[in-house]
Amino acid sequence: MTKRIRSKIARGSGELAILALLAEQPLYGFEIAKQIGERTGGTLQFTLASLYPLLYEMEKRGWVEGHWQTNHAGRDRRYYRLTPGGRRQLAPLRQEWRAFFQALDSLAGVSHA
Amino acid sequence: MRDWKALVRERLGTRGLLGSAEEEVVAELAAHLEDCFVEERGQGWSEPEAEKRTAADIRWRGMARRIRAAKCEEGEMKNRKRTLLLPTFANLLILTLGIQALLFFGIHPRIAFAQHMWFSFPLPWLLALPLSGAAGALLAKREGASFGERLVAGWAPSLVWLGEFGVMALVFACDRRDFGAAFPLDYFGLTAVWWVVLPPLAQLVGTLPFVWERDVAVERF
Fold it and tell me: Is 0.80 surpassed by the pTM of this model?
C-alpha cells in the first residue's frame, strides 16, 4: 500500500472517529485522543502532531467548532463540538467506511482474520 | 513544571505566521502537553522523566506545516510561496552571486580535451552549487517545508539546467537528423557528465544536511 493511500485512510478514519466522538458530547483535544485510544483498545492512537492539524482542518471546513471553557480540573481547555455541517457529514462517512470494510471483507475476509 | 507555552512556541517555529490564531494554537497545544505531563506523573514517572516523555516523539515541523495550512487565511498558495518559491529564488540568486565572486577571484571554467573533442568544464558553477543548494534547503526548512519542497528548493538550478539540457539535446538531435548526420553520442555523453550528472551531485552535498528532519518520529495515526 502506498504512503499516499495509507495517509488518506488514516485521515479519513481519523475524521470519522472524531466526528463520532463529538456527536456524543463536546470534548477537548486531550480527551479526544484519550477516548479514541481507550475505546479502540489502543489500536487507533492520536499524537499531538496528528490530532490538532486534523481538528483545525475540520474546523476550517465547518464540521466542528472550538470554544474555550474551564474543565473539571479548573483549567481552561478548548472544547470542540459538532456543527450541523459536521453532523451531516457523519452519516455518509459511516456509510463509506461500512462499504469499504464490506468490500475488503468480501475480498480478503478481514472480519474473520 | 516546565513552561509548555514556551516549548510549543520554540518548537513550532511559526514566529507569528499564524496571525491572530497563533496565541490560541500555542495555548491549546501547551494545554495538551500539560495534560500529558500530568498523566505521566500520575503513572509514577519523576518530573524530569515525565517532561521528557511528554515532549518526545512529536513531529513538530510536519505539524507546524499542516497547522499553518489549516489556520492561515492566505491559504496554500501563500504557504507554497514561503516554503518553495522564495527559497528557490534565494538559491538561484546565491548561485549567481557565487559564480560571479568565483570569477572575480580568478576561478574560471576549464577547457578539457577528451575523445578528440574540446569540452568546457564549469568549475565556478560546480563550486557554487553546494552553497546555493544549502541556502535554498535551509531557508525551506526554516519555513517548515516538506521533504520534497526542501529537495526542490535545494536542487532547483540543477533541475532547471537538466530540463534545458534535455531540450537542447533534442533540438540538436532533430537538427542533425535533418542534415542526415549522426548524433554525436560520445560528445553529448561526456558533456552530460559535466553539466547534468555532476551539478546535482555537487548541489546534493549542500542540500542533504537540511533535507532530513531531526525531529522525525513515528506518527501513530
Answer: no
Nearest to B221 among A14, A29, A60 (CB): A14
So where are chain B's domains? 4-56, 79-210
> What is the torsional sign of CA A91, A96, A99, A104?
negative
Classify A69 as helix, strand or coil.
strand
pLDDT confidence of residue B118: 75
pLDDT tens, position by position, A22-45: 999 999 999 999 999 999 888 888
Judged by a CB distance cut-off of 8 A, whether residue A29 touches chain B is yes
CB contact under 8 A, A50 and B220: yes
Give the CA radius of gyration of chain A. 15
| Mean of all residue pLDDT scores within chain B | 82
Q: Which of A47, A100, A93, A90 shows the shortest CA–CA distance to B36?
A: A47
Q: Which of A50, A56, A77 sits opposite B31 (nearest CB)?
A: A77
pLDDT band at B221 (very low <50, low <70, confident <90, very high): very low
The 3-state DSSP class for residue B15 equals: coil
Q: B156 φ, ψ to 5°?
A: -50, -50
pLDDT of residue B104: 92
> Which residues span the domain enclosing A72?
3-112
Interface test with B, best of A48, A51, A57, A63 (most B CBs within 10 A): A48
The number of domains in chain A is 1
